[in-house]
Amino acid sequence: MKRALALLLLSLVAACTVGPNYERPASLPPEQARLQEALSSGTFAPTPLPPKWWRIFDDAELDRLVEQALTRNTDLRVSAASLQRARALLSEAGAARLPTSDTSARYTRSRSQITGVTPPQAVTTNYYSVGFDANYEIDLFGGVSRSIEAARADVGAAQAAVDASRVSVAAETARAYAQACGYGAQADVARETETLQGRTLDLTQRLFSAGRGTRSQVDQAQVLVEQARAQIPTYEAERRAALYALAVLTGDPPSAIMDTAAAKCRTVPTARTVLPVGDGAALLARRPDVRQAERQLAADTARIGVATAALYPSVTLLGGVTLGGTKLSDLGKSSGFGYSLGPLISWNFPFNGAARARVREDRAIAEGSLASFDGTVLTALKETEQALARAGGAAERQSALARATTASSDAARLSRLRFDFGADSFLQLVDVERQRAETRAALAQAQSDLADAQISVFKALGGGWENAPPLAVKSIGTH
Q: Which residue among 91, 353, 418, 463 has the highest number of C-beta atoms inside a 10 angstrom radius?
């Protein structure tokens, strides 16, 4: 007994944790992590990104939809379930630090023949026993500690995946809403253009009836009317398609969206202020995918230690207590008491090289995770720079088309007056009317493109997961 305890103490003293100790990868220097587009454009400001960036669009319906999506989206529920699983696996890994135990109760009735006597006799025996066994594996080389370390990092990666889903859900909900509003606005522009072109057609027909025009002029005016009219069904179909996507993002069946304020939206939500984008260091600290890649690297590094620990012996302390007797009343007597206690040393000698191959395998996985982390950091910066560049270009294009629309409307009004007084030809009027229709349609499209580009900026910045509302999780029941 004393020798067993001495061996246990020596084992604890000599215990060590094998495998590499994880060190977080160094951050990029400030000059490499800066957002070049934000520094060179007056469309953006280095002020911190607000947690609920969609409120910058100042649209109450958009705020409601995003909050609902963050509460009920099914993809978020999947991510949340994965996080629960990771937490359960962490608890399972932590349980390896505790002793395992087993209880048993047994009753046997046996009958045997006594030979050598005449006549032969049979003896019937009853035997009752209860027992309790316990064993504890000493974490001599840190295999259990590394396993817990890996599981804890997996929880962090799963939490980051939930946050990444929140970023995506918030952005895609805002995008679907903006698309629905944008297509509705473009359909309204097409209707207005149809009405204006209809007036030109009516005028042309009256002039033709009065002998001042030609059938060709009437046909040309009819073409403009039909072209404007032909665009309306496409815009309306795309508007409904965006609404159906929006409904599913918010956790509703597609048909439910048609009775909401979103179905009536005709004004594209656009941020009217300079967009707050922060800086590169804040971006990398905020983006959940960067955090997820870093936690995955930590988990894979810890698993090298788990595989390495399998190369060494394991020491398990075993103990058991039994009580037995031929009668139930004998179970409490000292005569039926028995026990066992001692260490068990086992070692699977890695003669065939499989265990060492697993170490090399896990090391290669960790090296791949390190490369993936570096790539995720660079991708985060790339996506943000691209989104900023496109948003800046979209803002400039929208401003130019707004000025062009004002000028084309003025030109069309003057051309109509000149045509009425005979100063402009019909071809001149038709050409000016066509330019006005094209610039109005282009402006409506540019407004939708600007909203989409601004939403892409916020998605690339990785915001929207902070202070998220609790997820409405459905349960399948417990037993």
A: 463
Q: Give the residue, 185 or 348, on which the prediction is more confident.
A: 185
- pTM over cut 0.90: no
Banded pLDDT at 258 (limits 50, 70, 90): confident
Residue with tokens 């394991």: 314
Confidence of residue 335 (pLDDT cuts 50, 70, 90): confident
Kindly tell me if the per-residue pLDDT of 6 is higher than 70: no
Report the C-alpha gap between 183 and 232 in whole angstroms: 9
The Cα 288–Cα 157 span in angstroms is: 9
What are phi and psi for residue 345, nearest 5 degrees?
A: -110, 125
As a whole number of angstroms, the distance between CA 291 and CA 279 comes to 17
Encode the chain in three state secondary structure. Answer: CHHHHHHHHHHHHHCCCCCCCCCCCCCCCHHHHCCHHHHHCCCEECCCCCCCHHHHHCCHHHHHHHHHHHHHCHHHHHHHHHHHHHHHHHHHHHHHHCCEEEEEEEEEEEEEEECCCCCCEEEEEEEEEEEEEEEEEECCCCHHHHHHHHHHHHHHHHHHHHHHHHHHHHHHHHHHHHHHHHHHHHHHHHHHHHHHHHHHHHHHHHHHHCCCCCHHHHHHHHHHHHHHHHHHHHHHHHHHHHHHHHHHHCCCCHHHHHHCHHHHCCCCCCCCCCEECCCHHHHHHHCHHHHHHHHHHHHHHHHHHHHHHCCCCEEEEEEEEEEEECCHHHHHCHHHEEEEEEEEEECCCCCCCHHHHHHHHHHHHHHHHHHHHHHHHHHHHHHHHHHHHHHHHHHHHHHHHHHHHHHHHHHHHHHHHHHHCCCCCHHHHHHHHHHHHHHHHHHHHHHHHHHHHHHHHHHHHCCCCCCCCCCCCCCCCCC
Counting every residue written for the chain, the total comes to: 479
pLDDT digits (tens, 9 = 90+) for 411-459: 888 887 887 777 777 677 777 877 888 888 899 999 999 999 999 999 9
| Paired tokens of 130 | 């209860």
Name the residue among 461, 301, 294 with its Cα closest to residue 373: 294
Q: How many angstroms separate the Cα of 10 from the Cα of each of 14, 140, 224, 397?
A: 6, 10, 94, 76
Q: What are phi and psi for residue 118, nearest 5 degrees? A: -125, 125
Higher pLDDT, 12 or 361: 361
Lowest mean pLDDT among 184-188, 272-276, 295-299: 272-276
By CB atoms closer than 10 A (0-12, 13-18, 19+), residue 136 is middle
Give the end-to-end CA distance of the chain in Å, rounded to a whole number: 44
Residue 216 has φ and ψ, to the nearest 5°, of: -60, -40
Residue where the block lists tokens 């379930």: 81
